[in-house]
Amino acid sequence: MDDLRELYQTMILDHNKHPRNFGRLAAPSATADGHNPLCGDELTVDLVVEDDAVKEIAFEGSGCAISTASASLMTEYVKGKTLAQIEEGFERFHDLVTGPSHEHVDAPELGKLAVFSGVREFPMRVKCATLAWHTLRSALAGDAEVVKTE
Ligand code: ZN
After folding, report:
1. In whole angstroms, what separates CA 130 from the centre of its chain?
2. What is the pTM of this model?
3. How far is the CA of 40 from the centre of ligand 1 (A)?
4. Domains, the chain, with CATH or none
5. What is the Å distance from ligand 1's center to 38 Cα?
6. For the segment 53-77, what is each residue's pLDDT rounded down to a tens digit?
């Protein structure tokens, strides 16, 4: 558990400092804005969807380290995946961050995202960790409204 906690902190710091896929896409096929008023996190997700899969993805915004790191890792995870795989990944990720804190977590299919199991010990941060995913799903669903986690 200590190893996971250390990995979690390292990963959050790294992705917060050097977010991957940060910026806007020139010609997105879908876009959505997300806002977490509890913490003040805001982000925009741009996507290019082709043949039922995410070919390109980028995000931009400002927020706490967890929201930025989660968005960065989310973009790495979903790039190249089909919409069905992404939906499954979202459900697994959601279970991972909202499960009981005493329960052992084993989620190898989530890869690096598994470090976010550390968030379940801090329920206030769950919305920070899931904001990017809610925004992604909103973009995929074609909702024009700003997603709020509240
Ligand atoms: Zn936050």
Report:
1. 6
2. 0.90
3. 6
4. 2-148 (3.90.1010.10)
5. 8
6. 999 999 999 999 999 999 999 999 9
